[in-house]
């Protein structure tokens, strides 16, 4: 838990610094150095809250046309950082809650957006590890929002299209929050409607590992 809070609080400060300074280059990714050293355990909660508050204020007060470093496609740098930090915080909140067995299910609209960020942006990056030979397809449908995606996996970078291909090798359907947790590897697919090649569930867990750097 200490490591989780340090990481999330450090990333909040990293993101806020990037936007606040309008840095065109990546801010130093060494979080401990960036934050000036980790707080003691007794100070950790207040430190986290201060960093989160500063992030929210920075994103809320930044000019809509602020130009700064980004690493995912978005309508604007501010949109990218706002979206990324929403899901950074939500997923790591889930991590904290899983420790206590008191999980708060993410809202459907937040979950659907997080699914889209993962499937359309993160796993399509050239450095992604999701590669298969022969090629396979995975379709995902959020039954509560109507959103859907089809992921084509081959030896080349992943290609994601909107919409559900019912003939995909694996089709997974369920409420957006349940899909969100499964796709981000925070839950299994027990409560989801799975048809097709179930071995691809294990492939996903093995090969989809998102790093913040």
Give the helices and strands, then pairings.
Layout: H1 2-20, H2 31-34, H3 44-61, H4 77-100, H5 108-122, E1 136-142, E2 148-153, E3 159-162, E4 170-174, H6 176-183, E5 193-196, H7 199-207
Parallel strand pairs: 1-4
Antiparallel strand pairs: 1-2, 2-3, 4-5
Helix pairs in contact: 1-3, 1-4, 4-5, 5-6
Radius of gyration: 18 Å
Average pLDDT level: 95
Largest β-sheet summary:
5 strands, mixed
What's the helix count?
7
**SSE order:** HHHHHEEEEHEH
Annotated CATH architecture of the largest domain: 2-Layer Sandwich
CATH topology of the largest domain: Nonspecific Lipid-transfer Protein, Chain A
Give the C-level CATH assignment of the largest domain: Alpha Beta
- How much of the sequence lies in strands comes to 5-15%
Strand segment count: 5
The proportion of residues forming helix, as a percent range, comes to 40-55%
Strand order of the largest sheet: 3-2-1-4-5
Question: In terms of per-residue confidence, which ranges show pLDDT below 50 for 5 or more consecutive residues?
Answer: none
Number of separate structural domains? 2
